[in-house]
Amino acid sequence: MKITVLGCGALGQLWLSALEQAGHDVQGWMRVPQPYCPVNVIQLNGLAYNRNLPTNDTAHLAASEILLVTLKAWQVYNALVPLLSQLDPECRIILMHNGMGSQGELPAFEQPVFQCVTTHAARRDGSTILHVAAGTTHIGPTNIAARPHSEIADTLHHALPDVAWHDDIMPAIWKKLAVNCVINPLSVIYLCRNGDLQRYMPHVEQITREVARVMEAEGYSTSADTLLRYVVDIIHLTADNYSSMYQDVAAQRHTEIDYITGYLLRRARKHGITLPENTRLFDTIKRKEQNYERLSSGMSGSWK
Ligand SMILES: NC(=O)C1=CN([C@@H]2O[C@H](COP(=O)(O)OP(=O)(O)OC[C@H]3O[C@@H](n4cnc5c(N)ncnc54)[C@H](OP(=O)(O)O)[C@@H]3O)[C@@H](O)[C@H]2O)C=CC1
Ligand SMILES: CC(C)(CO)C(=O)C(=O)O
């Protein structure tokens, strides 16, 4: 199958290597075009995958049957919009990122769209991507055109198992949003690994209860206690991780807070619900982000 992977970072390279080894005709699509895309992945079995794969070939893009989007949520609009008119109307677009709301920003288009959440973990170490944990990728349709295409889960599963198809992917995406609303900002506030959040259970519980209120208003049947058990399970399972938001703030990169807590707050407003603790966390992370972004753009700002 001809496939383009948009965004050749940690997850992008993991999928490029897996799809190429599964026999697909793959290319990467990079922000700054280069003669080739160097894909260097240390796989879970310890073996290195090192290949220079083709990149930014418009003929390959136009013939692609799958466009796998492995960008940060805030990068999706700028990267994807210029490519939409170049895609085949049947090309299946898969969004794979933390947070919610990126699809709502896009103009109308006819291609089938899918959204994923994954528990695979990969991170950059110098010029190499380390596949640090195996996981499950949950995928499902987010528009009508995508509904008949459950076979896409088999294609992905064959390359990088496990992949599970969901006719209704939204509950899985909301559960992941809940996890990210709790773990990501709290790990920045307490400057800690995910596992250390067990020391701050009242705070974990307070945030989770607010998220559960919004999920209930959105029509998802989950109790605050069930959601809390799920969040605590993920805290245990990822105890040694520094969350992606912790890493973004430490490296003074733009965070995904607008698509995580920011999305939650936008949905809460629609239902007339106020979320004092999530609002406070959102403001704190935005202040940190704006401070270093202001400094790096040469404007004055104060550290808080
Ligand atoms: N890594 C992981 O283990 C997991 C990640 N996720 C989520 O998956 C998403 C991707 O994460 P991850 O791979 O770690 O992120 P990375 O930052 O490693 O990868 C994003 C890549 O997209 C590139 N990019 C940015 N803008 C464009 C553009 N306009 N056109 C083409 N490429 C562009 C970046 O390049 P450049 O740096 O040059 O801008 C970068 O290489 C995030 O939402 C993350 O939260 C979810 C679960 C696990
Ligand atoms: C699940 C979790 C919290 C794992 O670290 C994650 O998705 C992230 O760091 O963004």
TrEMBL record:
Record-linked Gene3D superfamilies: N-(1-d-carboxylethyl)-l-norvaline Dehydrogenase, domain 2 (1.10.1040.10), NAD(P)-binding Rossmann-like Domain (3.40.50.720)
Cell compartments where the protein resides: Cytoplasm
GO terms, biological process: pantothenate biosynthetic process
GO cellular component: cytoplasm
Domain annotation Ketopantoate reductase N-terminal: ranges: 3-142
MF annotations from Gene Ontology: 2-dehydropantoate 2-reductase activity; NADP binding
Superkingdom classification of source: Bacteria
Protein name: 2-dehydropantoate 2-reductase
